Amino acid sequence: MLIHPTIDPVALQLGPLAIHWYGLTYLAAFGLFLFLGMRRLRHEPYASMTGPAAWSRKDIEDILFLGVMGVVLGGRIGYCLFYKPAYYLAHPLEILYVWQGGMSFHGGMLGVLVSQIWFARTRQKPWLQVMDFIAPCVPTGLAAGRVGNFINGELWGRLSSPDLPWGMVFRNSGTLAPRHPSQVYQFLLEGLLLFVLLWLYARKPRKTGQVSAAFLVGYGVFRFIAEFFREPDDYLGILALGMSMGQWLCLPMIAAGVWLWLWAEKRP
Fold first, then answer.
1. Do the beta carbons of residue 67 and residue 134 sit within 8 Å?
2. Using an 8 Å Cβ cutoff, are 178 and 1 in contact?
């Protein structure tokens, strides 16, 4: 079995200024989004749009700015509502204590949806067309986030067999038993694999909404699988039917994706 390396969370110290690895992974995510967004402009239907409907780099920058706000606000509010509603109802001011940690992907996704509704209305663009543009550019950011989780030694996996060659001991887990490096699993599934599949799927013209639907189904399925190896939150544990909160949140996501794809397929 492997031992998780002790990595200083501070990548660079410049006097009183500390640059954390986690912050660098966020910067990498933003940079990748801009790069992929510019490449996405070459795909149809965006490449052939002219006049007021045309897309530009400014649109990508505005999408990113609003998306970051949606991720932070939605992720934090979603965490408070989905994972610790009773605690934050009793301590409402601590909802603002984002430096204490606690973010939900599913809440962040809802925040992004709301932020892009605003973008679509102010730019007079179809909302689903906006979401189709964004979807293939998102998984690399998710992959960068999982790298940050691994560096910080957080969100470790469930106990693994001692014979598992890549079983890893996470000191922060409070035990020296080997665990699944679930951050790596999620990096590979929700990050790299989902990106490759979505990018290839989105390169060809699709009906409006189908790329977004593919993201919902793809992420939901891969996250559902990864949750079998990820340690559930200690204050929630395993819920009904032997599933974690993350898995329960993935089910409506997958269902919504299937419905959206079929709805889009029936449209002329």
1. yes
2. yes
Place of tokens 């998306």: 67
**Residue 99 pLDDT level (bands cut at 50, 70, 90):** low
Name the amino acid, one letter, at 36: L
Report d(CA 223, CA 218) in Å as an integer.
8
Q: How far apart are CA 55 and CA 28, in angstroms?
A: 23
The amino acid sitting at 129 is: Q
Reference 253, options 190, 193, 207, 206; nearest CA is 190
Backbone angles phi, psi at 41, to 5 degrees: -60, -20
3 closest CA partner among 226, 173, 144, 188: 173
pLDDT digit string (tens) for 10-55? 888 888 888 888 889 989 999 999 999 999 999 988 988 888 889 9
**pTM for this predicted structure:** 0.87
